[in-house]
Amino acid sequence: MIRIFSILVGLFFTVALAWSLLWDTIQLSKDGLPKSAAAEFGEHAKPLKLASDGPFGKFDKKQLKRGFEVYAGVCASCHSLQQVAYRSLVHAGFTEKEVKELAAKATVNAKDPLTGEMKDRPGLPSDKFQPVVYAGNGVPPDLSLITKARKGGAPYIYSLLTGYEASQPAELVKQFPDAKTPEGMYYNPYFSNLNIAMAPPLASDDLVTYSDGTKATKDQMAQDVSAFLVWTAEPELEQRHQTGAWWILFLIFATTLAYMSYRNIWAEKKGK
Amino acid sequence: MSFPWSKEYKPSHPLMTWLDERLPLPRLVYNAVGGGYEVPRNLNYFWNFGFLAGLCLVIQIVSGVILAMHYGGDTSVAFNSTEHIMRDVNWGWMLRYGHANGAAAFFAVVYLHIFRGFYYGSYKAPREMIWLLGVVIFLLMMATAFMGYVLPWGQMSYWAAQVITGLFGAIPLIGEPLKEWLLGGFAPGNATLNRFFSLHFLLPFVILGVVILHIWSLHIPGSSNPTGVEVKSESDTVPFYPYYVGKDGWTIGLLMIVYSVFVFYMPNALGDPENYIPANPMQTPAHIVPEWYFWPFYAILRSFTQNFLIFDAKLLGVMAMFAAILVWFFLPWLDKSPVRSASYRPLYRKFFWVLVIDVLILGYLGKAPAEQPYVFVSQLATMYYFLHFLVIVPIVSSIERPDPLPFSITESVLGHDGAAKLAKD
């Protein structure tokens, strides 16, 4: 009885699916496979080598500091970094004194401990980066987690920053008239839908002056800020890599011992 | 199971004697996972995953309870409190990455455990209750994982809550009110997040309770084995301690190594980048995708695209998605073959491997966007899924001619002569 019932239920689902399949196939034969400008003309991220890559990767503190200078000099006019506290910059190549000075440049609206009133005061190392008010249209995303929040991570950020193209391929506009770059937008084949609202932020060399004297080419700035944004998203990376190495070494040792004792226990039982 | 040759607990210390007479807890442990539990000697490594699933549950509960001490279940702070755990709580990143990847490890282990049950017919009499409770555990796990995924209140959290509760909206008549009741509003909001947090904390302990029932019911008939032949004599079994403690024990190390590689070296490999963007009800992500362990069921849901008879396409998808798991409840009665192990069922075995490949394909399609040609393939794959369980299994199990079974477990391990020698000794 239950089996007759089950066969009926099974056939019901099968016929319902066949019905969907039939209509979809008719539709498919009319429309053909879906095509999108992004699938045809979008590019995969360019390779980017960072010191933090790989299982033993560590941050290049000098590069992080340069990356911060790019963020502060360029990105920070539109993008916030609200998950990051000034105090944590000591892990990114800054001294405590520098951190205090940096924080003090910010204005923080906070409760005055004496009067209880909300008042503006200079920032402290314990404060986080303050919100950035963007005057234009749209909402520039907060950059704290950006390398984790975009497929492709740091190489994607690097590719996006250096991947602007002056004009769209003629073939693209011919095949996909809808994907033509609208007024006020910019063509960037690394962006998910090819047209991005952000103007090329690293349009020329020497937008910032590096404190370590490195020449600030466009490519250098893009690499450095990508490295810095890996750090803002994963400040725990070094500790994670180191802890993991010791822990996994221990596990391999312990597992080997456990395997040997297992072999010993089963020695007289043939088979397993 | 207690066989005539099962060893009895004998307290070795006066204190244990005292305790045993008043609260026989040591005896319970001894009979459950100690020298008192006799287990078939021929279990292969597929039998390790039950033990490992238990370990995963413990990891999840311990890491989860600590995470809850630092998390704020309010839409205004949930996302930032998750980042607070990652940045400011000592070893918080390890707890969170461990918990997120722990869920993946739990599902991976449980899927292998379920695979074992399917292949070796562990659901057959007299073990139906173990199987039924197992399916209940799996359903509870799915609910728990889904609600846990909503807690960080990222984009995918929000839209997952929207999509999954939306499924209930497809039910005729009561759908909309039911959906609003589940969400505590018209869209996911603070009420939703609060109740999901509460339930996400509660359900693991419900799972723990059902796991205890699962193991209890296992100890009535005792463990199954790869031949599917019942235990006949003392030479067929070995005590759980030390034999299977040793065998399960070393594979804990293996699981921990694989798990740790994920936690420490690719903690975000299995997650969706979208969930590092704070929830935004005004912006729908381009592709709403669940975590990998839900992909096959998501593909089934999306393969129904046309209304059929009186049924709405969405309702059909929802029915099929739930039916895809509910059908497992009926498996012990759909598969009437008296032979348990697929190793001795040549015809069933072929169909079973097709099912395994079918589910892997569905998994791939569940991740893919809902467009052609993926929809076409997922429609075919979903058809096979239902045909397999509801049509092929009942028919094959009644017409199939199984291969000869070994006489006993001992014979399957030692060969005919070895078993005969043991019997003579």
Write the layout of secondary structure elements.
The complex is a heterodimer of chains A (272) and B (425).
Chain A: H1 2-31, H2 37-41, H3 61-73, H4 96-105, E1 107-111, E2 118-122, H5 146-149, H6 153-162, H7 170-175, E3 186-187, E4 195-196, H8 218-233, H9 237-266
Antiparallel strand pairs in A: 1-2, 3-4
Chain B: H1 14-22, H2 25-33, E1 38-40, H3 49-68, H4 78-87, H5 92-119, H6 128-150, H7 155-168, H8 175-183, H9 190-218, E2 237-239, H10 240-265, H11 295-302, H12 313-334, H13 346-367, H14 374-399, H15 409-424
Antiparallel strand pairs in B: 1-2
Helix pairs in contact in B: 3-5, 3-9, 3-10, 4-5, 5-6, 5-10, 6-7, 6-9, 6-12, 7-8, 11-12, 11-13, 12-14, 13-14
Descriptive account of the structure:
The complex is a heterodimer of chains A (272) and B (425). Chain A is mostly helical and 272 residues long. Chain A folds into 2 domains: 56-236, Orthogonal Bundle (Cytochrome Bc1 Complex, Chain D, domain 2), CATH 1.10.760; 237-267. Chain A has 9 helices and 4 strands. Chain A has helices spanning 2-31, 37-41, 61-73, 96-105, 146-149, 153-162, 170-175, 218-233, 237-266; strands at residues 107-111, 118-122, 186-187, 195-196. In chain A, strands 1-2 form a two-stranded antiparallel ribbon. In chain A, helix 3 packs across helix 8 (218-233) and helix 6 runs antiparallel to helix 8 (218-233). The longest helix of chain A has 30 residues, at 2-31. Chain A is extended, with a radius of gyration of 28 Å. Chain B has a two-stranded antiparallel sheet with strand order 1-2. Helices cover 64% and strands 1% of the residues of chain B. Chain B is an all-alpha fold and 425 residues long. Chain B contains 15 helices and 2 strands. The two termini of chain B are 25 Å apart. Chain B has helices spanning 14-22, 25-33, 49-68, 78-87, 92-119, 128-150, 155-168, 175-183, 190-218, 240-265, 295-302, 313-334, 346-367, 374-399, 409-424, and strands spanning 38-40, 237-239. Chain B has a single domain (37-424), classed as Cytochrome Bc1 Complex, Chain C (Up-down Bundle).
